[in-house]
Design a protein that fits this description.
With about 300 residues, the protein is of the alpha+beta class. It has 5 helices and 20 strands.
Length: about 300
């Protein structure tokens, strides 16, 4: 902190963290994020690592203010989007618009009104995102909820035999389709999962900030466990996916305008329910650059959130 901008001291009560009655998630009550003190920001950041996904309600942010908030979590990722067609999708280099709204015959954002399958953001890149944050401007009356699953817990509760089968293995993450099932521009449909384009990452990764191991599955369509036959890979992936997405491991957010929902792609998967095509849903998203997924020999199991009794 430079002398010109001393750390703000606040006399107000500190930010409050209220865990969701579920396997992950917390609401953080911290008033206006535009004037968050450094002390309160530390509470928000800690809550994101401890609860894996956080919601902060009642905000009114411009795009530059959303960008400034996101930057406090780390460098923002501005990589060009692998789009699927005639969508605009960015208002600033740092902002991705997630929306079904059409303007002048062109979608203003990505992902339409479709169901979005379980995934971890940008797992098809060498260095996937760490945090993603959606800020809601307009939400439908019903539908379009966003759900999360705790991947520390998925790993901890995995049958030891299955754990043995995935030990040291890597998974290939297909980049051909987005999570709404649309073909990305410049790609051709996949006929053999072994040939799908995309990087391989360890199935178990160690979170570099918490030190705990988590299951890292990315996306189900066209995934392939390297070194297995396609049949063996499909069978093992089906078992892993049904284990990882069981309702006991999940929590769903029901949106109101002015919500910031922030999640940690290194240890959660998320999905979205579909919603009425006639309804308007507009979210602006910022995302933090992450590191290359890796498994550390020192990786721990037993993340405290998994055993939290609430
Ligand atoms: C995303 C995403 C889900 C949603 O922006 O990465 O998956 O609820 N969005 O819109
Ligand atoms: Mn996503």
């Amino acid at each position: 902190m430079s002398a010109a901008s001393p750390a703000k001291k606040s006399t107000a009560a500190p930010a409050q963290v209220i865990p969701m009655a579920a396997a992950l998630g917390a609401e953080v009550k911290c008033r206006d994020v535009r004037v968050l003190t450094d002390e309160d920001f530390q509470i928000v950041h800690r809550a994101a690592l401890d609860h894996l996904v956080i919601v902060i309600r009642g905000q009114t942010l411009t795009d530059p203010e959303l960008i400034a908030f996101g930057r406090r979590f780390g460098a923002l990722d501005c990589a060009p989007l692998a789009k699927t067609g005639n969508e605009k999708a960015r208002t600033h280099d740092e902002i991705v618009v997630v929306s079904n709204v059409m303007e002048d015959g062109r979608a203003i954002g990505v992902l339409r009104d479709a169901e979005v399958v379980w995934h971890s953001d940008n797992s098809y890149r060498d260095q996937p995102l760490s945090f993603s944050a959606l800020y809601s401007l307009e939400v439908p009356d019903r539908g379009g909820n966003t759900g999360f699953a705790n991947m520390y817990l998925a790993l901890e509760t995995l049958d030891p035999g299955l754990r043995q089968r995935i030990a040291g293995r890597t998974l290939k993450h297909d980049m051909t389709y987005n999570s709404a099932g649309d073909l990305r521009q410049g790609f051709t449909p996949v006929s053999d999962v072994r040939d799908a384009p995309g990087p391989s990452h360890p199935i178990v990764r160690t979170h570099t900030d918490t030190g705990y191991d988590a299951l890292y599955l990315g996306r189900r369509p066209n995934a392939y466990i390297n070194g297995l036959s396609v049949e063996q890979s499909e069978e093992l992936l089906n078992v892993l996916w049904s284990h990882a997405t069981q309702p006991e491991f999940t929590w769903h957010h029901v949106w109101r305008p002015g919500d910031i929902l922030m999640w940690d792609n290194r240890c959660v998967m998320h999905h979205r329910d579909p919603f009425d095509a006639g309804a308007r849903r507009i979210m602006h998203r910022v995302q933090c650059a992450g590191d290359r997924p890796a498994k550390s020999l020192e990786g721990k199991t037993g993340h405290p959130r998994s055993s939290m009794k609430i």
